[in-house]
């Protein structure tokens, strides 16, 4: 401590006078460091350097946390930019045409059937490519699911020269390229929660129309050529009751998620939609659809009931009892044929088992490139398709393609599980509900597609696109929140970030 004489003799050091017109060099230290240097005495070895609030470092941490695949891919490294408005509009209209099939619902539009979907797809692609190049500087974000779809396209192309019927293989390749292109555009164009929600509601609206059609067919006695099952209100990918049931079983979990993330009146409406679609699955008399519906329900019950196992168990028992009581009398007998094929009077269960064996044998005979896309029926029993999406790909495109297809199904589940872990209750984040619901939908497809040749159709590609878009939007929101918080801290007043999703805000509107 200085003495009194030292204090009395102290004179402040005056800064040198600055010459006229000469500018003082600015400090290169951050404001926080400069202030700390003024307060701390020079040479004090115990004074700790000030903590700098760095926006870059905070965002980098958020980037590392938000990279679901453990890579430094560009799509996971930056928040999503706004754009692709025209692309999204084209995709929305295209989805409406594909799922509603208005030219079948309205006879006056039948002559326009060939002039609806294809021109929309072409126009959407013309909007997409320049917009994507302008936003990201590439043709697509480097996503694992996109790479796997392109790999499937490659295997399909390689199968054409070696196919038994090259014409059918070529037609199958062309059609699948359309599916792959729409998938790529979807995962890049759906960049906001509002867009994602509208697309989900469009798919649910189409499912409601199909469900009402199933009820109308059943009551009117309009059955398929076998005279036992409904024909379906529209054809195409919904003309087969098994495929219709599979689609509806994947939509029920999404409707249930809307029940959890909405308020009173909307809860009731979405609950009614879920019950309607589940009942339509029953009216199709599809065993695969029932198994897919049960698998999706189990995923929902297990994940959403983490803290209320007893309540979930009681609700599940009630749902099963109501299902058995309200289902048609013939339905329970059909379900028993899942485990007891001898009771199947139609012989379809036994026939499918034989076709499964044939497909496995041909996978062993042609493991690399298969027999050609859409060519399995040529070597099958009575020109039947494989009735199994996994062996369909393996027998027609080869084992490597089948592995790529399975990885394509599993990749979005990994993304969704990450979001699920980060948003676990008691936070009760609506992101948690959507992560669980999308997982349940994909699992429902994985189970029900074991009984249908649907590997090249739209169903799973829309579901995976929804899952990828949801996870990308979630990670982008995290990065934006981290950047805003860091910016607020740097300016001396950290902002409070509202982490509530637009799903919840729209539900309360």
Question: Can you put this structure into words, describing what you see?
Answer:
With 509 residues, the chain is mainly alpha-helical. The chain has a domain of 348 residues. Helices cover 66% and strands 0% of the residues. The longest helix is centred in the C-terminal third of the chain and has 33 residues. The radius of gyration is 30 Å and the shape is globular. The N and C termini lie far apart (68 Å).
Structure keywords:
globular; mainly alpha; 509 residues; 22 helices; disordered N terminus; 0% strand
Topology:
Blueprint: H1 4-8, H2 31-39, H3 55-66, H4 74-77, H5 85-100, H6 102-105, H7 117-136, H8 144-159, H9 166-189, H10 193-220, H11 241-260, H12 264-283, H13 287-304, H14 309-326, H15 329-336, H16 348-365, H17 376-379, H18 389-397, H19 399-422, H20 430-448, H21 458-490, H22 502-508
- What's the average pLDDT? 79
- Regions with little confidence, pLDDT below 50 for 5+ residues: 1-76, 494-502
Helical fraction: 55-70%
Q: What would you report as the Rg, rounded to the nearest angstrom?
A: 30 Å
Largest sheet: none
Q: How many helices in DSSP terms?
A: 22
Q: What is the rounded distance between the termini?
A: 68 Å
- Shape call: globular
Q: Oligomeric state of the chains?
A: single chain
Structural class: mainly alpha
How are helices and strands ordered from N to C?
Answer: HHHHHHHHHHHHHHHHHHHHHH
Q: How much strand?
A: under 5%
| Beta strand count | 0
Compact description:
The protein has about 500 residues and is mostly helical. It is about 65% helix and about 0% strand.
């Amino acid at each position: 401590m200085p003495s009194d004489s030292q204090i009395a003799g102290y004179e402040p050091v005056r800064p040198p006078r600055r010459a006229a017109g000469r500018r003082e060099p600015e400090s290169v230290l951050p404001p926080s460091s400069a202030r700390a240097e003024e307060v701390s005495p020079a040479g004090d070895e115990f004074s700790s350097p000030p903590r700098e609030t760095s926006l870059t470092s905070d965002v980098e941490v958020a980037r590392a946390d938000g990279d679901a695949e453990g890579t430094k891919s560009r799509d996971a490294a930056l928040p999503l930019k706004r754009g692709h408005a025209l692309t999204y509009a084209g995709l929305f209209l295209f989805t409406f045409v594909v799922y509603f099939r208005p030219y079948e619902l309205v006879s006056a539009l039948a002559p326009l059937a060939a002039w609806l979907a294809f021109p929309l797809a072409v126009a959407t692609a013309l909007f997409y490519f320049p917009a994507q190049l302008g936003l990201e500087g590439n043709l697509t974000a480097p996503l694992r699911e996109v790479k796997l779809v392109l790999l499937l396209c490659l295997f399909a192309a390689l199968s054409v020269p070696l196919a038994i019927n090259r014409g059918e293989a070529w037609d199958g390749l062309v059609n699948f390229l359309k599916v792959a292109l729409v998938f790529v555009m979807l995962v890049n164009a759906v960049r906001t929660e509002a867009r994602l929600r509208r697309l989900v509601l469009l798919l649910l609206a189409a499912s409601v129309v199909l469900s009402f059609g199933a009820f109308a067919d059943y009551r009117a006695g309009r059955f398929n050529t076998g005279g036992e099952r409904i024909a379906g209100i529209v054809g195409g990918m919904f003309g087969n009751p098994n495929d219709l049931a599979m689609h509806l079983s994947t939509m029920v979990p999404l409707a249930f998620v809307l029940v959890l993330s909405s308020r009173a009146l909307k809860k009731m409406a979405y609950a009614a939609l879920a019950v309607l679609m589940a009942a339509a699955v029953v009216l199709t008399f599809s065993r695969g659809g029932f198994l897919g519906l049960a698998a999706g329900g189990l995923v929902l019950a297990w994940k959403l009931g983490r803290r209320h196992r007893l309540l979930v168990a009681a609700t599940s028992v009630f749902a099963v009892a109501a299902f058995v009581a309200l289902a048609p009398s013939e339905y329970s007998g059909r379900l028993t044929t899942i485990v007891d094929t001898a009771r199947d009077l139609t012989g379809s269960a036994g026939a499918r088992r034989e076709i499964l064996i044939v497909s496995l044998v041909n996978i062993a005979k042609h493991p690399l490139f298969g027999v050609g896309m859409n060519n399995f029926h040529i070597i099958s029993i009575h020109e039947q398709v494989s009735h199994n999406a996994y062996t369909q790909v393996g027998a027609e495109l080869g084992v490597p393609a089948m592995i790529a297809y399975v990885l394509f199904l599993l990749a979005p589940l990994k993304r969704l599980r990450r979001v699920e872990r980060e948003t676990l209750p008691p936070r009760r984040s609506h992101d948690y509900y959507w992560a669980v619901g999308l997982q349940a939908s994909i699992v429902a497809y994985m189970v029900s597609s074991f009984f249908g040749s649907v590997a090249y159709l739209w169903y799973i590609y829309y579901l995976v696109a929804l899952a990828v878009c949801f996870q990308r939007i979630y990670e982008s929101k995290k990065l934006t929140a981290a950047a805003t918080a860091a910016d607020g801290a740097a300016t001396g007043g950290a902002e409070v970030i509202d982490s509530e999703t637009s799903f919840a805000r729209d539900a309360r509107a």
